[in-house]
Amino acid sequence: MNKVIKIVVTGPRGKMGREAIRMITNTKQFQLVGVIDRNNNGKGLSEIVSMEDQGQDCSVFTDVNQCLRETKPDCLLELSVADAAYEHALAAIQFGVRPVIGTTGLSQEQLADIEREANENKIGCIVAPNFAIGAVLMMKFAEMAAKHFPDVEIIEMHHDEKVDAPSGTALKTAEMIQRQRQEKQQGHPKEIEKLSGVRGGDFDGMKIHSIRLPGLVAHQQVLFGSVGETLTIRHDSYNRTSFMTGVKKAVETVMHVDSYIYGLENILE
Ligand SMILES: NC(=O)C1=CN([C@@H]2O[C@H](COP(=O)(O)OP(=O)(O)OC[C@H]3O[C@@H](n4cnc5c(N)ncnc54)[C@H](OP(=O)(O)O)[C@@H]3O)[C@@H](O)[C@H]2O)C=CC1
Ligand SMILES: O=C(O)C1=N[C@H](C(=O)O)C[C@H](O)C1
């Protein structure tokens, strides 16, 4: 019989935190042992979120070290904001707890620190800018296409409560495309922006555009252009259950690895 995986979730009142708690509660081999919330220290989870369809109650902690010391989890599922995620992940590694980080917006330096600490301490750690399987495929397909189409623009579209722009997915997509694409500065060399920012953000010569609107969840198009043709690769998350298959896979996998992994594509068969 598989051992039960004990999990601490950060950001439990958030959109992803609530969805993840629901998934954990409904997964036999997972056990929610604590949550980390910047408010509500000492309360019970049922006092801060609706437990309608959720069975497991647990304690709420504000201090990450106290939480990890008292609950002794196997895995910390990080779903809050970048700076808190950085602090939580480093603390988890020090306690021998494996982080699964879905939070986006961490700097390259923050990610490099987490990678170094995980590898030096031989603690499994998975950072996944997007847990949706379709989004991972979109990124892989875009990487394949970039070999043949060096002209590319990324348009990511999210709900207007999102704090980081561009999205973690857009950045990861650009990084994957960069690995295959021959170096190119796109557009007209004498292009003039008559309205500042109108051409989007520049990532190694390709453009990323971020749209924020109520009604959206998480969507991305990768557009490639060539002579007389375009190719559009698009993914849509219509709700946050779309991320849960990937979260589950990452939590299961992190228990069997002893180093840092960046991107869900590296753990999918
Ligand atoms: N990898 C993936 O597939 C996905 C990743 N995400 C990422 O997950 C993260 C969370 O997204 P989402 O749930 O939509 O966001 P929400 O804003 O709904 O939730 C964020 C949670 O983090 C808490 N929080 C905010 N600031 C801090 C802080 N300084 N310390 C501790 N906790 C804090 C908030 O509490 P409070 O109410 O007190 O502010 C809230 O509970 C984002 O980075 C998002 O980009 C989202 C979807 C999918
Ligand atoms: O904030 C979100 O909602 C999402 N964030 C992640 C990102 O920044 O890419 C993943 C997904 O796009 C939803």
What's the CATH topology label of the largest domain? Answer: Rossmann fold
Oligomer: single chain
Q: List how many beta strands DSSP finds.
A: 12
**For this structure, what is the CATH homologous superfamily of the largest domain?**
NAD(P)-binding Rossmann-like Domain
- Spatial sequence of strands, sheet with the most strands: 3-2-1-4-5-6-12
Return the CATH class of the largest domain.
Alpha Beta
Structure described in brief:
Keywords: Amino-acid biosynthesis, Cytoplasm, Diaminopimelate biosynthesis, Lysine biosynthesis, NAD, NADP, Oxidoreductase. This protein is 33% helix and 25% strand.
Provide an overview of this structure.
This protein is an alpha/beta fold and 269 residues long. It has 2 domains: 5-127 and 241-266, NAD(P)-binding Rossmann-like Domain (Rossmann fold, 3-Layer(aba) Sandwich), CATH 3.40.50; 133-238, Dihydrodipicolinate Reductase, domain 2 (2-Layer Sandwich), CATH 3.30.360. It has helices at residues 15-25, 45-48, 64-71, 82-94, 108-121, 133-146, 168-180, 244-254, and strands at residues 5-10, 30-36, 59-61, 75-78, 98-101, 125-127, 151-158, 201-203, 206-212, 218-226, 229-237, 260-262. The strands form 2 sheets. A 7-stranded parallel β-sheet has the order 3-2-1-4-5-6-12, with helices on both faces. α1 links the parallel β1 (5-10) and β2 (30-36). The radius of gyration is 20 Å and the shape is elongated. The mean pLDDT is 96. Residues 11, 13-17, 38-39, 79-81, 84, 102-105, 128-131, 161, 164, 168, 243 line the site of NADPH dihydro-nicotinamide-adenine-dinucleotide phosphate. Residues 134-268 form the Dihydrodipicolinate reductase C-terminal domain.
